[in-house]
Amino acid sequence: MENRSKTLGKPAGVTYPTLGVWPDAESPPSEESPMTRSATPRHGLEVDTDFAQFIEAQVLPGTGVTADAFWQGYAGLLDGFAAENVALLERRTELQRQIDAWHKARGNQPWDAAAYRAFLTEIGYLVAEPAPFAVENGDIDPEIATLAGPQLVVPVSNARFALNAANARWGSLYDAMYGSDVMGPVPSGGFDPARRDAVVAKAAAFLDQALPLDGGSHADVTAYEVDAQGLVATVGGQAARLADPAAFVGTHRDRADTGYVLRHNGLHVELVINRDHPIGAASASGLRDVVLEAALSAIQDCEDSVAAVDAEDKIGVYGNWLGLMKGDLAETFEKGGTSMTRRLEGDRTVTRPDGSTVTLQGRALLLVRNVGHLMTTDVIRKDGQSTPEGLMDAMVTVACAIHDLKKTEGPRNSRAGAIYVVKPKMHGPEEAAFADRVFAHVETALGLAPNTVKLGLMDEERRTSANLAACIHAIRNRIFFINTGFLDRTGDEIHTSMQAGAFVGRDGMKTATWLKAYEDRNVLIGLASGMRGRAQIGKGMWAKPDALAEMLEVKVGHPKSGASTAWVPSPTAATLHALHYHQIDVAARQDELQGQPIPDLDLLLTPALADGPIPQDQVLRELDNSAQGILGYVVRWVDQGIGCSKVPDIDDVQLMEDRATCRISAQYLANWLEHGLITEAQ
């Protein structure tokens, strides 16, 4: 296991004992070591005193769970699962040792897919496919089960970012286009009326495509009104209605704004009318904005994008998640010399033409990503040793979410009564089944009904990709999500086949046979497992947060692939990516894909090895880019405690860097060092 203490490092030559920590004698405490902090005994555990107080004074009151029950349940969790956690990690190591030896023994022989597959089956890396099945995951919110749209990922350690993501359910299309490179270089001076007009024209073109009128264009509307039959637009002095009258939902009023709410492909679009607003005053129809339903869901991340290693850090992470689940998280900050306070947005009340009302969710459905099985923590120790951080995340994040389940009025996160936990970096069905049993224990300890906790399976490790159907089957009663991710998955691709040879560079990797097979298999296996209408099938992050014009051109490929969600780096990106789900009817696309042949497993298992010498200028470019990314990430992580940063590459393109990007860069350097493409001196 990996211990992330700020001050303790693993000494050379020291092996891991039972719970996967460094022997205390080998790592004497420094001033900031967790071993010098006061500990409070709880059911045989040594709990950081501040952390124990946080759990007992802030997390548990209002949940119906007593402190004694919580700590007894936690002690049982460690007794029942900590040793197995370590054994699963040892299994990873042993499989990797065998794979490395197989590749070394073959030397430079031509690739033999059949022999490789037989070998992986023999050692238990590949398991038998389950018989046909369909997931049975209980009550699931529509944002997961039936709606298709963008998904944000945000470090929950930053309260302002966490709130921004939660509130990104609705986004201004005018603002997203005006303030990004979608309309050309981002403006640096004062207000640009010509840019405004171009934005308005582009938004009208979107409305004509998604919500057309039965006569004329939205660009020519001089008035929008509502009567008993729905929306009426005036075009050239004539009344026009929506080509699909059923797309009109109702009217939403917010102070001086009157919003006409429409629906297309399950997503809402609001035409905001205010002739007194500067933008509305310049519009013949009084249209001052087009607001899109954007981020349907948001992952509040406790893993790759945060820097959380000790009790103080973890209290901050859990405290923000707790505030989101209670609904009282707030953050005050200075902007433009003015103090502002950000809170969770309320729901939206829309009045139908018949006078009845409907409530639309005002916030993204919030999911929480725990750490994987690898990490350990000193926040809670047993017998003087660190314990698995994943078990702590499971117990605490679920306990925090009980506050949402207990609500009887006001805005809620899950109206279905579910808790959504994304579990990353699991290797194969054994580890997925382990997670299933961990959360079953947590549910029992906290008094929750079985399968209240839903699990998101991140398909980012090669053994999971190769056994995806078996992984889904292992958690079929609680799975809500699968997704693909180029960065972590490529990192593990290189790591697993490290001894097979030198890998192609990043550009070659993006067009590699295994990658297309990986992306296609994920969708098709998800559909074959009955996930349509029951769970999300997701795609990975757009890693260039400032290149949104490019994203608008490229990322439509994700809904075209049959994915019902895909990751975006900001609320602005979520608003723009929402346009893609109006272009593509994902449910219809999934119907088209259902039953199509799944790409052969051999395509997935064939490593993208270089078939000849790689030009030295390309090698040096990859070396510089990898080093730049690693240093840019690590320096901010260590010096500033920032787990996710925008770091310029060698071409000065801003890229998101977190542990996933660090992983792929490190594996490239390790692989090319191993096979002599670069030297340690370089």
UniProtKB/TrEMBL annotation:
It catalyses: glyoxylate + acetyl-CoA + H2O = (S)-malate + CoA + H(+). Its cofactor is Mg(2+). GO terms for cellular component: cytosol. GO terms for biological process: glyoxylate catabolic process; glyoxylate cycle; tricarboxylic acid cycle. One of its GO terms (molecular function) is malate synthase activity. Gene3D superfamilies: Malate synthase, domain 3, Malate synthase, domain III. Keywords: Cytoplasm, Glyoxylate bypass, Magnesium, Metal-binding, Oxidation, Transferase, Tricarboxylic acid cycle. This is Malate synthase. It comes from Pleodorina starrii. The gene is PLESTB003066.
